[in-house]
Design brief:
The chain contains three helices and ten strands; from the N terminus they run ααβββββββββαβ. It is mainly beta and about 250 residues long. It has a domain of about 170 residues: lipopolysaccharide transport protein A fold, CATH 2.60.450. The chain is rod-shaped. Keywords: Membrane, Transmembrane, Transmembrane helix.
């Protein structure tokens, strides 16, 4: 025999009244909490009042033109490139990335020795160009936005490097070196790679060159000849030196 089906029980008036009381109680409690939050905690979370400041017109940064006479018209060095003044020389470059706390890669880079430094106004400074850039370690941490830089502890110019004397000078003081992978610090410039060098009217081909910088390169008043102390070429493969009219027998 099948058991008779039980009919569902409908909520009584007492049950519905209890539910209504629960809803009203919960609503009253939440309203009280909201009012307390609004009157006590909310004022502490409001940001302080800040007076409006009227901003002045934007200033257009003008590139420094103190080195423009050293470079051809349209050269990137004459544009709005980054410039850092160090005790070793003026660094000009377009791109940079930090590789360690005090180490940076700068590219392309030009180093000007004898111009742009504090008080240095040499009319024929020595210039080092490296299109592939340089890896430079400074004596301490560098603030890229300051415009100045600590001394260069050591650096490596990457790829082909051109070292030359710029400005108006007589042929006897001409200097032009084509080489690669050049090291640099505050005392010397060196490379073990092959070099092709013109000094005055002489032409040299060899390798393993060191150029010692004079202490006057970092001070004012040093002439073009005072920037360089001496040059050492370990291996000389070719030397061409024109002689005066009449040669040796004049």
């Amino acid at each position: 025999n099948l058991a008779p089906l039980s009919r569902p029980r409908l909520p009584t008036r007492t049950t519905m009244l209890q539910r209504l009381i629960h809803y009203v109680t919960a609503l009253t409690l939440l309203s009280g909490v909201a009012i307390a939050y609004h009157n006590t905690l909310a004022p502490w979370l409001q940001p302080p009042h800040v007076d409006k400041v009227v901003m002045g017109p934007d200033h257009v940064l003008q590139p420094d033109d103190s080195l423009d006479d050293l470079f051809a018209e349209g050269a990137w060095q004459r544009g709005s490139c980054k410039r850092l003044q160090t005790s070793s020389g003026m660094l000009l470059f377009q791109h940079w990335t930090q590789t360690a706390q005090d180490e940076w890669k700068l590219w392309p880079i030009t180093v000007v020795i004898g111009r742009g430094m504090s008080g240095a106004t040499d009319q024929t400074p020595v210039i080092i160009d490296a299109d592939q850039g340089a890896e430079i370690k400074f004596a301490k941490s560098l603030d890229m936005m300051s415009g100045g830089a600590p001394p260069i502890q050591r650096g490596r110019m990457i790829g082909n490097v051109h070292i030359y004397r710029s400005g108006n000078h007589d042929q006897a003081h001409a200097l032009d070196i084509q080489t690669a992978n050049v090291g640099i610090d505050k005392r010397k410039i060196w490379t073990t790679e092959p070099i092709r060098m013109n000094v005055g009217q002489a032409r040299l081909v060899g390798r393993d060159l060191t150029i010692h910088l004079s202490g006057q390169a970092n001070t004012a008043g040093g002439g073009s000849s005072a920037i360089l102390d001496r040059m050492e070429l370990i291996y000389l493969d070719q030397l061409v030196m024109p002689l005066a009219d009449g040669g040796l027998w004049k």
